[in-house]
Amino acid sequence: MKMDDAAFEAAIKEAHIPVLVLDQKWHRLFAITGKPEEVKAVETEVNELLARQGKVNEEVKQLKKIKADLMQQIMANMEGADSTKGATAEEQNLDEAKRLMDETNERLAKDEDELLDIPREIREKNNELMLLTMQFAYEKLRSNTDEINEISKWIADVRVNLKKNIIKKQNREINNKEMYAYMHDVFGKDMMKMFDVHYDEEGKLILREHLEEEQIAAARVSKE
After folding, report:
1. How far is it, in rounded angstroms, from Cα 129 to Cα 146?
2. Contact between 133 and 38 (Cβ < 8 Å)
3. Which of 208 and 186 is assigned the larger pLDDT?
4. Helix (H, G, I), strand (E, B), or coil: what is residue 31?
């Protein structure tokens, strides 16, 4: 039973499929015809999202490393400021490290929020790409099936005509042999030779074949 549109759309949204652009078999679907322009456009968007995801992941990794280094600096400067009265340099370093820490935390929070959004965007674009792929594939399957049916009909017709023509050819060959044999019996060997020479090249070739058969048969009888 065909699924209604609402149920179909809901099922698509809940679908969990691999990222298509990373699957070589998906690319092979378009090996013969090439990808339609709308497929190429969404494919580019998915690739851009994947590239962005990789870039942000690397940035988060670097920011966490910077954050760990800043934390060490803050701890060291706090100890220096506590142990030395009026340690202005340590206090300035501490303030700078705290400022950098705040910036790092802000950037880190922004990147982590983006990393939560990117997978959703990739999934949505991937589903869109799936729908375009299915539309392309089923249209191609239908057109291939139509062509297969046309070719199958042509082959069936050719087989019927071939069978008819084989029978027709065999009947004509039998008819030729019978006619020549009757002519040979009615008009005699010498008269047939004269008419064989008189008629056109094609006729002579056809008749000569029967004449040679007659001569071979006669030779066999004489040997016996």
Report:
1. 26
2. no
3. 186
4. coil
Token pair of 106 as six digits: 């802000």
Q: Which residue has the tokens 């790409």?
A: 129
Q: Could you tell me the maximum CA-CA distance found in the chain, to the nearest angstrom?
A: 146
Give the distance, in angstroms, between the CA of residue 221 and the centroid of all CA atoms in the same chain: 69
Q: Express as a percent the part of the chain with pLDDT over 90.
A: 50
DSSP 153-213: HHHHHHHHHHHHHHHHHHHHHHHHHHHHHHHHHHH-HHHHHHHHHHS-HHHHHHHHHHHHH
Measured in whole angstroms, how far is the alpha carbon of residue 142 from the centre of its chain? 15
Q: In terms of Cα–Cα distance, which of 104, 121, 38, 21 is closest to 68?
A: 104
Contact 180, 210 (CB under 8 A): yes
The answer to whether 70 touches 100, Cβ cutoff 8 Å, is yes
